Amino acid sequence: MDRAEAEALDRTDPLAAFRVRFHVGDTGGAIYMDGNSLGRPAEEVEAAISAAVIEWERRLVGGWEEWIDLPARVGDRLGRLVGAAPGQTLVCDSTTLNLYKVVSAAVAHQPGRREVLAVTDDFPTDRYVLQSIAEGRGKKLRLVDGTEDAIEAALSERTAVVCLSHVHFTTGRRLDGARITTAAQEHGALVIWDLAHSAGAVPVDLDGWGADLAVGCTYKYLNSGPGAPGFVYVAQRHHGRLRQPIWGWFGQADQFEMGERYEPAAGIRSYLTGTPGIIALRAVDAAIGVTEEAGLERLWAKSQALTDLLIERIAARLIPLGAQLATPTGSRGAHVSVRHPEAWRWCRALIEGELVIGDFRPPDVIRLGPAPLYTRFVDCFDAVDRMAATLEAGLERIDPGKGRVT
Ligand SMILES: *Cc1c(COP(=O)(O)O)cnc(C)c1O
Fold this sequence. Notes:
about 400 residues, seven-stranded mixed sheet, four-stranded antiparallel sheet, binds pyridoxal-5'-phosphate
């Protein structure tokens, strides 16, 4: 593959026209490869945030008449992107908080079972939430390798809950959602999917898989803004059966009765806690609109083509320089990772040199997340060339000191 071939792929890319809406400069500057960590804002999202402020100014407290339904309305819209029929998804709270709610609810629903099953090197917040709940409820947190075979081999009649990332945050490995869900349920376990690195880029079919519960982010491939709310999915069959532990007034059956005792609202609304952030919800709504317009099928097709190109270029340019591919060439998500003993300094050199913005993950990984809405094939091609040139120039001058955020 040469650069002309990458340019040719951009010319025939059916999503090429979306890029200008994200105000990405065409020449100069660093290539943004961190769409898997924080997506870029589209014009529509900026406009929606401004419109939300004006709406607040005009309607003041009267706005709540309509705003109160936004977590469920935007949730239904988001649900369509992850294969969830209406009435099962909310956009609210953070992913961490939503995970706490669903893991607690699921564990409490399986009192006779001792084990919570998860993957050893999963995202920190997931591990910490599981540690908290397992320790608090006297359960054993059983950690295994993140392959389908290892997970299936660990399932038993002791398994209460299985909690997994669909796409792994460092390696980008993608698990078979249908297969694991079925296997876990055959053992009587409940299955929770973390879709942080899937939603908006990778096909997910929660209802089709028969998933029990799920959570995810909107600020990664869904481009809804730093700290935009997460989402939570609870399959219809569990409504009224599982109970989440954070009893707030937004999850109360008759919120404005302000009654003495908490009674969970019917359906998915019982997973609300407190007052939702309306400006952020308007941003999520607009960002979902852009993703819908592009179409998940086209996004996934382009994402695979972008990561194919990255993998080919990494093999051609970086592996000869001592890097290794950390992402499986088979079942993977929308980002690609490379390992290198000097990954931290390499990543700093790329960012400080305004060459490539990726991110470092300990101990030795650089992640490249080419978001298909606004990343070109030439960006992937050039990013790998810049990474190679940086290694060839040597990393000795780079200060190994660490910043607070990587
Ligand atoms: C990004 C990410 C999160 C983030 O959780 P927050 O509560 O939004 O900080 C959670 N889980 C996984 C797997 C992630 O990749």
